[in-house]
Structure formats: C-alpha cells, structure tokens
Amino acid sequence: NLFPEHIGWRNVTRLLVFSTDAGFHFAGDGKLGGIVLPNDGKCHLEDNIYSMSHYYDYPSIAHLVQKLSENNIQTIFAVTQDYQPIYKELRSLIPKAAVGTLSSNSSNVIQLIIDAYNSLSSEVILENSKLPAGVSMAYMSHCKDGIARRGEDGRKCLNISIGDAVTFTISVTAQECLKDNKKHSIKIKPLGFNEEVEILLSFICECACQQHGEPNSPRCHGGNGTFECGACRCNEGRIGQLCECSTDEVDTKDMDVNCRRNNGSEICSNNGDCICGTCVCHKRQNPEERYSGKYCECDNFNCDRSENKLCGGHGRCECRVCICDANYTGSACDCPLDTTPCLAPNQQICNGRGVCECGVCKCTDDRYQGRTCESCRTCPDVCIEHKDCVECRAFGTGEKKKNCSEECGYFVLELVDDQKSLPDPEQRFLCKQRAENDCWFYYIYEVVNGTQEMVYVAKKQECPVAPDILPIVLGVVVGIVLIGLALLLIWKLLTVIHDRREFAKFEKEKLNAKWDSVRWGVVMGNVVQGNIMGQLV
C-alpha cells in the first residue's frame, strides 16, 4: 500500500497530478518483458524510486481504482493533445479524476491544475465499503436542480458550488436474517473527502414479543398467519407481508425476482412494494403525481421542464417522457411547430432561405441572417443580380442578349402592361433598372415555394423625353443678342460719363486761364504806373 510516511501526506484531501506526453500501461503489458507476477499494490520505494519494476507487472485499472480510493486520492491527468482521447477513456473508469490539455512546453500546468481542481471539487460522489451478504443499498440524490435521481445517478451530484446544499437518501435492505450475532460496519463517504458516515448493522432474528403472538390473526389476510411483534408470521403455504399470497401461485424464491427490473437489485424500482410477485406502487402526497409501470419504473412528474413548467405546459408526462400537444415538440415540449413567426412579408417561410425550427428561422445559407433570413450584407442587390437576364428576356437587349437563352432560363417570366399591373410591390422585391436604350424598366422578383423563381416585367418603359432644339437655339440667339446690346449700352454709358468728365475738366481749365490773364494785366499796369511816377519825381 501507499503509506503516508513515504510520500509525506497528512490526513487531507489529496491530489495526484500525472503529467505525460505518452500513453499508459496496464496489467499484461509486462509480459512483453517476461514479467508475469501480478502487481502487489505496495510502494517498494528506495531513494524515492520504485525498485520492483523488473519483478512485478503493471497494476490493472481496477487495482489502481482500489488503491486511489483507499488512500483518498483524486487524480489529474495533464497530458498533451495527442493522448487526450486515451486518458478521457481512463477517466471514465476512475472516479473523481480529471483530464487537462498540457501545452508542449508545459507552461499552462498551473492553470490546468486549478481548472481540474475546480472541476473535481464541483462533484460529490458517494461510495460505500463492502456490504455483508444478503444486504443491499440504494441511493437517491436530491441535487440543487430539485430532481430526485436513483440508481447509479443517485450516488452523485454534479456542478456543485460552495454554499450549495445537497441531500442523499440511503436505503439499507436486508434480504435475510444474519444469525452470526455480529455487528456489521458499513462506511459511506464522498470520494475525495475524509469525512465518512459509519452504519452499524445488527440483526435481531427472534424477539421476546413472539411469545405473545395472535395465531390466525384477522390482520394477516383473514387468519393466514400469526400476528406477532407488529408483523405477520405466515402459516405454511402462505407468503407475503400480510400472508396474502399462496406458495401454490407464487414461488418464494421468484417472488422478488418478478419485481426486479432487468434482474437488478432494486425491488419495484424503490417506488413500490412487491406483493405476491407483483409491484404495488407507492402513493404520493400530491394525488396528481403517481408511479406506474410493471416495476413502478414510470412516473408523471420527473419529465423535463421548460420555464419551470412540466413539459413546458404544452404536454403531459408519461413514464418520464413528455408527450407533447399537437403544435409542440422537443424533450420539454418547448419547441412550437407553428411557422407563423418565420413568415416573411412575402408570406414565404424564412424568405425561402432557411427552415423554421421552434418558431425561429435557421438560415441554410450562411450569408443570410435576420429574423426571416432577409438580410445579406455580402450579397449583390437582387435587382442588380437579375437585371441583365430580365432585360434580355423581356426586351431582347442588354449585355446578355447573345447568350440569353443559355444563361437566363432559370426563372419564369411573365409580362404585364405597365407598372400599375405588377403584383403587390410591398410584399416582393420591386426593381427599377436602366435599359440599354437609357429607358427605365420595372420588374418584380420573388421565390415561390422556396424553389420556383418568378419575374414580373412591365412592358411599358419609362424613357426620358427628347429636348426641343428650336426653343433652345432661339433662346441662345436671343440671349447672345441681349447680352451684346447690354454690353453696348454699358460701353456707351461709360463713354458718355467719361466725355462729360473730360468736358467739365476742360471748362474748369478754361476758367482758370481767364483769371490768370486778368491778374497779369493788373500787375503790369501797376509797374508802368510806378515807373511814370518815378520819372516825374
């Protein structure tokens, strides 16, 4: 065995991290090297090295599981991506084991251990020690989802967080009375934890109250047994809890066998009592809840739920399976079959580009999206996509008129007189495109029944009106003449203004010249007069 003093473990929860980039060996592989002795499950450590690898074969998986459980060890397999499938299969055989992907340089080993530990710590799995002969145990778990589970699922609860409370109900059944007068110990503990519950079983095969029994008591199915110690001891030839069965009708050995499903250990699936080889199911506190079936294996209250309603409120629960109403399907009847939410404005389901599942469009073409697969950001416009083929088939023009019959026969063409005769454009794609002759033509494109493409074209085109040349020419000539006259008038006006300014300047200069001649004459007269006066003196 693995001894704590060899490894240095205290009495705590133990994690064993096994890191490798290869597979694993199990019992029998040692024969390739001539080693045939089975592994004894002991350490054989010398200087922290296993010293008996040349003597003992590899341990079997069952042996490994036993030793891990005995020593309260939880295993974390940190392996590379190539060996993930192998160790995941091994994990399914080893309780409380986890597998993580180890990077090539082992840089993520710490995070891997943290994630694996969180995964392991969220599981609670019960195990028990070996049971005495004739004793069986049945588990029933009440996990945080509120669903009661039995059988192997009754041993465990998953996805448990800190603070969550879970309850396990354990039933111990003795098929016969053990007369060895010994107390038998049964230990129950959660895997990976040190805590355990010990049950001491002692069997009382004979009681003092048997001396005061009531022979042929009416409480034993009309006098078919002796009522003693609160139970019936049946007369010869009668069996059953109340001596209600005859051994001529039911074999004592087969009575419980007929109440076990698939030869299992649970009588009437732990939901009923075996009476005369027939299961009589227990009653529930809620009269609307009931067990049913030959082995009481069915019930009408453990089906899947949706929005906290049994079978989503759209069906009934039969033998833990939802039987949905006419317009619903799914495990919890939460998938409506009504396709109304998937109808596009053109009254097509998902615009012919998808399927309606549970009232939601699932687009078959990844390019389309939206509530009814109506949007395609990477697709060409519908009008542009079909424009050339519509033009060549409707009017015999366009870029594809040479190969029109070969390239454009994928739709059905229907011609109408004008735009007003086209089908309702609000429910379809209305297109307006320019033809080769620069005229506009209108058409509508739609997909019928998801496959048939239809095109409706208005034969009447909207062409631009040719301009009237004569008014344009006359207007241009009149404009030129008017502009010329305006320029002449402006030139004449500027000339007149200039001439008047020059004449005014001339008149001013002329007046200045007359004033200067008069002033000069006065000066000269004064000078002459002065000379004459001087001579006289």
Automatic annotation (TrEMBL):
<dbReference type="GO" id="GO:0019960">
    <property type="term" value="F:C-X3-C chemokine binding"/>
</dbReference>
<keyword id="KW-0677">Repeat</keyword>
<dbReference type="GO" id="GO:0007229">
    <property type="term" value="P:integrin-mediated signaling pathway"/>
</dbReference>
<dbReference type="GO" id="GO:0098639">
    <property type="term" value="F:collagen binding involved in cell-matrix adhesion"/>
</dbReference>
<dbReference type="InterPro" id="IPR013111">
    <property type="entry name" value="EGF_extracell"/>
</dbReference>
<feature type="domain" description="Integrin beta subunit tail">
    <location>
        <begin position="383"/>
        <end position="468"/>
    </location>
</feature>
<dbReference type="InterPro" id="IPR015812">
    <property type="entry name" value="Integrin_bsu"/>
</dbReference>
<keyword id="KW-0597">Phosphoprotein</keyword>
<dbReference type="GO" id="GO:0033627">
    <property type="term" value="P:cell adhesion mediated by integrin"/>
</dbReference>
<dbReference type="GO" id="GO:0045202">
    <property type="term" value="C:synapse"/>
</dbReference>
<keyword id="KW-0732">Signal</keyword>
<dbReference type="GO" id="GO:0001968">
    <property type="term" value="F:fibronectin binding"/>
</dbReference>
<feature type="transmembrane region" description="Helical">
    <location>
        <begin position="469"/>
        <end position="491"/>
    </location>
</feature>
<dbReference type="InterPro" id="IPR036349">
    <property type="entry name" value="Integrin_bsu_tail_dom_sf"/>
</dbReference>
<comment type="similarity">
    <text>Belongs to the integrin beta chain family.</text>
</comment>
<dbReference type="InterPro" id="IPR057073">
    <property type="entry name" value="EGF_integrin_2"/>
</dbReference>
<dbReference type="Pfam" id="PF18372">
    <property type="entry name" value="I-EGF_1"/>
</dbReference>
<dbReference type="GO" id="GO:0009986">
    <property type="term" value="C:cell surface"/>
</dbReference>
<keyword id="KW-1133">Transmembrane helix</keyword>
<keyword id="KW-0130">Cell adhesion</keyword>
<dbReference type="InterPro" id="IPR012896">
    <property type="entry name" value="Integrin_bsu_tail"/>
</dbReference>
<keyword id="KW-0479">Metal-binding</keyword>
<keyword id="KW-0325">Glycoprotein</keyword>
<dbReference type="GO" id="GO:0007517">
    <property type="term" value="P:muscle organ development"/>
</dbReference>
<dbReference type="GO" id="GO:0016477">
    <property type="term" value="P:cell migration"/>
</dbReference>
<dbReference type="GO" id="GO:0019901">
    <property type="term" value="F:protein kinase binding"/>
</dbReference>
<feature type="domain" description="Integrin beta subunit cytoplasmic">
    <location>
        <begin position="492"/>
        <end position="526"/>
    </location>
</feature>
<dbReference type="GO" id="GO:0005925">
    <property type="term" value="C:focal adhesion"/>
</dbReference>
<keyword id="KW-0966">Cell projection</keyword>
<dbReference type="InterPro" id="IPR057243">
    <property type="entry name" value="Integrin_I-EGF_CS"/>
</dbReference>
<dbReference type="Pfam" id="PF07974">
    <property type="entry name" value="EGF_2"/>
</dbReference>
<dbReference type="Pfam" id="PF07965">
    <property type="entry name" value="Integrin_B_tail"/>
</dbReference>
<keyword id="KW-0245">EGF-like domain</keyword>
<dbReference type="InterPro" id="IPR002369">
    <property type="entry name" value="Integrin_bsu_VWA"/>
</dbReference>
<dbReference type="GO" id="GO:0005178">
    <property type="term" value="F:integrin binding"/>
</dbReference>
<dbReference type="GO" id="GO:0008305">
    <property type="term" value="C:integrin complex"/>
</dbReference>
<feature type="domain" description="Integrin beta subunit VWA">
    <location>
        <begin position="1"/>
        <end position="207"/>
    </location>
</feature>
<dbReference type="GO" id="GO:0046872">
    <property type="term" value="F:metal ion binding"/>
</dbReference>
<keyword id="KW-1015">Disulfide bond</keyword>
<keyword id="KW-1003">Cell membrane</keyword>
<dbReference type="GO" id="GO:0043236">
    <property type="term" value="F:laminin binding"/>
</dbReference>
<dbReference type="Pfam" id="PF23105">
    <property type="entry name" value="EGF_integrin"/>
</dbReference>
